[in-house]
Amino acid sequence: MSTVSPSQAHAFARSDRTALGVWWWTVDRWMLGVVAVLIFIGVLMSFAASPAAAARMSLGDPFHFAVRQCVFAVGAAFVLITMSMLDTKGVRRAAFFIWLAAIAVMIALPFIGHNAKGATRWVQFAGFTLQPSEFMKPALIILVAWMFAEGQKGQGVPGVSIAFFLYVISIGLLLIQPDVGQTVLITVAFGAAFWMAGVPLSWVMLLGAMAVAGLSSTYFLFSHVASRVDRFLSPEKADTHQVDRAAEAIQAGGFFGRGPGEGVMKRHVPDLHTDFIYSVGAEEYGLIFSLLLVSLFAFVVIRGLYRAMKLSDPFEQVAAAGLFVLVGQQAIINVAVNLNLIPTKGMTLPFISYGGSSMLAMGLTLGMALALTRRRPGAYTPTEGLAKAGAFA
Questions:
Q1: HSE-CB for 154 with a 13 A CA cutoff
Q2: Could you give the strand order of the β-sheet that contains 114-116, starting from the edge strand earlier in sequence?
Q3: Which end of the chain is more exposed for a tag (fewer CB within 10 A), N or C?
Q4: What's residue 15's pLDDT?
Q5: How many angstroms separate the CA atoms of 318 and 194, rounded?
Q6: How many angstroms separate the CA atoms of 175 and 102, rounded?
Q7: CA distances, 96 to each of 135, 155, 342 (Å)
């Protein structure tokens, strides 16, 4: 009678040297689990919001958006796992080609793009819309970190100059669309990478001053920015219907919510399934759920930054931290808009809001981050390496 050892019975034994086995024992499984929970919550929220959104748009299928969100969720999970299996060189190569492809599409947007709400940010094909800037963001952070690291080696590579060149091209194309929100998002992440790369503080302060001046100028250059700021500063003089309904939904939820599918205010929020999905969740599941959701994002960002700071390679450290900053920023902006703490901005809540581009791009972003923070010999500082020595046995 044959016997099976515990290691043989385990699907991924530590001795398993297949690509999937090595990935399982080197990836941050806690992070992976929390992201899986966020994706599940996103699908759950899409089923809550889809009927009201479909009715508002006169769609025959009440679960039109929910079904599509399920497809996007599967795609995001596939992208995340695939990207997280790459090595450092693979991440850099993928980022380079993704950035080139996204920039090429963004250049063509004025000619082939789909216009909505006064902006041309999407391309349409086969019934779907794709927003190339969503994929450009994480790729740019990787390339910028790469250039900063190359510049630090002192081998004649003008890394900082190239990084600024890539940044200027990217935000220039964003402002043409126009998309001020994404520009702010990328600028803050770029500034964070700039600072973490060890660039002199005077340069960081100069970049910060330029960013503030540039952001202030958008008030005078773009009418929709001025309109949103004016509505925020003087709500009594403008139409704040959407923000008001979102606030009422959050208040109506109380501590424990009205119950699954029992939300009422979502019928009056135009973008309930995208930018204001947080208010839908708050009404149906209450304050406890809202705080849990914020805590999950906080866990991803704080744990990600902690692991990034422990990395020994400058490129991996700056790139991983920049990606986690990107995710954290986007979550903060979305929640702040829902709580009426900042002017409205069309920014999705990562993994939660409806949208194929957002969902897939977030899978790409955290997939790259997980790839960079995987446990590899020499990847972490000596102290961390001693603690993790058993993982490479």
A1: 0
A2: 114-116, 119-125, 128-130
A3: N
A4: 67
A5: 8
A6: 15
A7: 11, 21, 34
Mean pLDDT, residues 323-351: 90
DSSP 74-87: HHHHHHHHHHHTS-
Residue-wise pLDDT tens digits, 340-355: 888 877 789 999 999 8
Q: What's the CA angle centered on 313, arms 321 and 80, to 5 degrees?
A: 50
pLDDT at 319: 95
Predicted model pTM: 0.89
Residues whose CB falls within 8 Å of the CB of residue 267, separated by 6 or more in sequence, listed in order: 52, 55, 56
How far is it, in rounded angstroms, from Cα 64 to Cα 46? 10
Residue 130, beta-bridge partner list: 123
Mapped onto helix, strand or coil, the DSSP state of residue 204 is: helix
For the record, the structure tokens of 15 come out as 């001795």
Would you tell me how many other CB atoms lie within 10 Å of the CB of residue 130?
18
pLDDT in tens, 133-163: 999 999 999 999 999 988 887 777 788 889 9
Residue type, 130: L
Q: Delimit the domains of the chain by residue range.
A: 26-392
128-130 and 114-116 strand pairing: unpaired
Q: Distances from the Cα of 98 to the Cαs of 47, 168, 274, 295, 343, in angstroms?
A: 31, 17, 25, 31, 31
